[in-house]
Amino acid sequence: MQQNSDNKENVLDDITYLIGNAEIARAMASVPSREPFDGEIVEFLNEVSKMLMTMGEAKMYPDVVTLGFWIRKSSVLNLKKRFEKKDGNLRMGRGLVFHIAPSNVPVNYAYSLVTGLLTGNANIVRVPSKDFPQVRIINSAVNEALSKFDNIRAYICLIRYEKKRAINDILSSMADVRVIWGGDHTIAELRESPLAPRAGEVTFADRYSLAVVDSDIYLDIDNKKKVAENFYNDTYLTDQNACTSPRIVIWLGKHKEEAKEIFWQNLHEVVKEKYVFQPIMGINKLTSSYLAAAIQSGIKIESHKDNYIIRVKIPNIMDNLMRWKDNSGYFFEYDCEDILELRALCDNAHCQTIGFIGERETLFPLLKSGIRGVDRIVPIGKTMDFDLIWDGYDLSERLTRSIEVNI
Question: Is 406 contained in some domain?
Answer without folding.
Answer: no
